[in-house]
Amino acid sequence: ILGVLTDLLSVGTDRRIHYMISKGGSEALLQVLVNAAQTPEPDYSVLLPLLRLLAKVGQRDRRFGQKAQTLEATDVTLTLARKNLAHHQNLTHCLWVLRVYASNAVSVGTSLGMNGAMELLFKVITPYTKKHTRTMRAAIELLAALLKSKSNSRRAVNRGYLCELLKLYQDWHHCDTSNSYVHIRRGFLLCLKHITNIQTGREAFLFIRGIEILFTTGQECLASKSLDPIVNTVTQILRKCYPKGRLPVATVSSSYSFSIPGSGGTGSSYAGPEDNCEDYGEEEMEKDLDNEDLENKEEEDDLETDVDKLTSKPELARPEAELGQYKAICPELSCNFQVGLLGSYPPIIPNAAFSMQQQHCRERDQPAMVPELGERAVKVTPSNWKKKGKPTENEAPDRRARGESTRDPACLSKGEDATKSDTPTLHPLPTETCWDARTFHAQCVNSLYSREGVEAPDVVTKLLERHPGNICFHSPHFYMARARRTCSIPDYRVLAFPDFWGHQPPTYCQSMLQRKYGVQRAKIFEDVRCLIQPSDVIDLVVFDLDSRSPDAPDGLKFFSKFESGNLRKAIQVREFEYNLILNSDLNTTQHHQWFYFEVSAMKPALPYRFNIINCEKFNSQFNYGMQPVMYSVKEALQGRPHWIRVGYDICYYKNHYRRCAAAAGGVRGKSYYTLAFSVTFPHKDDICYLAYHYPYTYSALMSHLDLLKQARNPKKVFFRQQTLCYTLGGNPCPLLTITAMPQSQRSDDLEQFRDRPYVVLMSRVHPGESNASWVMKGTIEFLLSSDPIAELLRRCFIFKIIHMLNPDGVINGNHRCSLSGDDLNRQWLAPSSQLHPTIYHTKGLLYYLRSINRTPLVFCDYHGHSQRKNVFLYGCSIKETLWQAGCTVDTAVVTEDVGYRTLPKILDKVAPAFVMSSCSFLVEKSRGSTARVVVWRENGVLRSYTMESTYCGCSHGLYKVTDKERTNRERAHSPDSRGLQIGTRELEEMGAKFCLGLLILQLKSLPCSKNLMDQAATLLDLEEEITDLRVQRSVQQHYS
Ligand SMILES: [Zn+2]
């Protein structure tokens, strides 16, 4: 009968076995075993096939262990094994079945352990011998299963088994030279892995020098790929047993603090004292990289399923009287063109000659609305940095009107991309110039901030004369002037060179990095080596925001006291390796992700290794092809002012630094993560900057707006820059209004002007998401350009744009929060006018528009997404949310316009980086206080979106590189075809394409005049042709 059963179950799928299990097959077989084994003379010709069948069935039966225990089959099998210690074939069969019992249920393992199973197994596995390896393997695998039980592990530690296991592992490692017994060797490692899950196990393991032994033996296995199972398990054990430590900083709170108005103290997020970093948690989950299931589960639970909440539209939460103040920031609704609007706002040109008082102003005491900066009395004088052959900024508008300047708005439009990227616009340094970056740094950059002098420092003047940079919409002078007025908490006095000098995307594109095999475990071995072979460990603090650090004689120099900079501490680990610690967001103890710092005094052509050791997210795109960005001052001065992707051997993994509860949102025992990467610098004694993503500072925004203001065509473009409010840090938050000037002063044209629907766009509520700024830059430049599509768009809509909702966060190098330590995109339900002024007043503006029946047609908040590729939208849909949550939807009660899907569908067609399939229209409970959900629910904006842009790259469409398009060199560098990493050009293009999408949306789904329709139709045909052409050209460019 056993033979027939075995045959039946050996063919076909597992369905047969599952059927038998469902019919009580496991119990029946176990009962037979109990009966047969307990006879005085057991018949092994029956028992052996039975045991084999039990092992086979048991593997598929999740309750097999419990069933065996209930029927007392576990004890019977153990007894049988004990009787057969000398009979290897019988013993092996018993061990197989025992292993199935134990691996199904830890409690079964525990009771087997109490009945002496481990002692029995030690008799089998000791001493080392190559005889009976099948039995040996069965025994060691059973032992590993038993040791999943903590009480067994504790017993193993108490009885000294750990030491014996380690010794046996070493014997097998040394004697198995032909690698024939990898399973047995791995079995020993699994035993060690389970025992070291408990703290006494780890302590004992350290005591018997387990780390050293595994490190050495593990290294001997690295070369052979067939030994991967061994190396991986060794790595897991090493990571786990590496002694946990505290981050080497005095406190995890931010180095800077800000006293919040009205609170008397600093920091709303201070969560009590920082606890000690004990080893919490007995069992460490090895789930670093496979948290996705968990995430999905949490996402499902997070869906808003309350139909009332989804469908209700709350009343205006502000008194009507208070809304009146927002009239002032909607000048388009009341301006009287007869008086000559143009004449009343002379263009204001900040320049280096203009001595700016430092604004220690705390102007939040004033009413929210203040006159726009432009209205301040600023005298325009011929500047002292006027250069031969280059028009001063004063003369420029005339030249622009004649279409001569590169900053002509026409250069914004279609044909211009090519010129912008093709021509190196900085002249190379004369070769005889002996330019020393360090001198530059000391003499020039520091003095840029000298507030007494009215003249630009000589060094800067000379530098700019030699390198008249003309990066589109960037001017070092404007930048300098704006930076002087920027209020930072640390009172920055140094400019980072890339922000000052400007960035231009390189003419080539960079593919995502191919991850090198074994890079992470190599890195972990390196970390362990620091611990056990510390002879070459330097461990010297070379930079510290909190205290003066000594000058390292030979090493790199670090610096981060500039806008958006946030390196807190740098520790030289070995000669060419540095551990870096990022500063927390102000008034918090966390949010380490964004980084931006300067590094100098490097030697060329040597790989430097950087480890950012206090990252917090459990995974990162750095594990999937993303690289950080670098800007070299020497390269910039030689005509290549580019932030480029650099770094290799990149990996991101959990490290041994434990977060105190205060730094982990109250959760104890969480770890930090390390981002490790190597960089080879291009020049000797250069100054380089490394960042998480292409920086875009507040001063960059302000100077960018200054240039745009001058560059637009005032006869066609209605453009106003006003101050929405001042931030806690005393910085004005600019609000832009962009639309077309009325066609004429006839009343119907004026009416058309005022009746245009609103589009409200904003970005950079999260300061670390600089990609959002580049997208917004693209949007604004396109909207102000002379592109005929932009012209049409301006005639269709009134754009209200708040580019930087969190200027203070950006300035002070935060990743997520504002000065109050709050995530501003979680404050939309009830923003405080004191603590969250930008959100409070943006919401006020939206309320005001609603109160005058001018609810925006489209609302979009630009963000960056750190875990995904491509660009996509999040929107809000009642029905999709309910469906996703598995709720029944009563279509009679819930009606919904599906118009929210149109714009993303259009973008999927027109924007190369955009992917519809990544979009989501679910309303999550946890997002109830975000801009997208609140504007949708409270203001009834159907098309209320968050636009998420990748930091990494694209895996779809045009920017997914096909193998054919790649050069041989690229193919050699990364064998498989992958997408491009996103650059500022692609981000800006996304911003422009978003506008195009709005125009198509208007044509497709909204009422519009025939005239407009005809014009647009012609243009869009044209656009399609041009796009095709440009695609071809850019592909040629990238790969020729
Ligand atoms: Zn964000």
UniProtKB/TrEMBL annotation:
Domain Peptidase M14: 694-1002
Record Pfam families: Pepdidase_M14_N (PF18027), Peptidase_M14 (PF00246), TPR_CCP1_N (PF25571)
Keywords associated with the record: Carboxypeptidase, Cytoplasm, Hydrolase, Metal-binding, Metalloprotease, Protease, Zinc
SUPFAM superfamilies: ARM repeat, Zn-dependent exopeptidases
A molecular-function term among this protein's GO annotations: zinc ion binding
Location relative to the cell: Cytoplasm, Cytosol
Stretches with biased composition (Acidic residues): 275-305
Keyword hit for Transmembrane helix: no
Biased composition (Basic and acidic residues): 390-407
GO biological process: proteolysis
Active-site residue list: 948 (proton donor/acceptor)
Superkingdom of origin organism: Eukaryota
Keyword Aminoacyl-tRNA synthetase included in the entry's annotation: no
EC id: 3.4.17.24
Substrates-to-products reaction catalysed: (L-glutamyl)(n+1)-gamma-L-glutamyl-L-glutamyl-[protein] + H2O = (L-glutamyl)(n)-gamma-L-glutamyl-L-glutamyl-[protein] + L-glutamate; C-terminal L-alpha-aminoacyl-L-glutamyl-L-glutamyl-[tubulin] + H2O = C-terminal L-alpha-aminoacyl-L-glutamyl-[tubulin] + L-glutamate
Gene Ontology cellular component list: cytosol
Region (Disordered): 262-308, 382-427
Cofactor(s) essential for the protein: Zn(2+)
PROSITE patterns per UniProt: PEPTIDASE_M14
Protein family (similarity comment): Belongs to the peptidase M14 family.
Name the record gives this protein: tubulin-glutamate carboxypeptidase
Record lineage: Eukaryota, Metazoa, Chordata, Craniata, Vertebrata
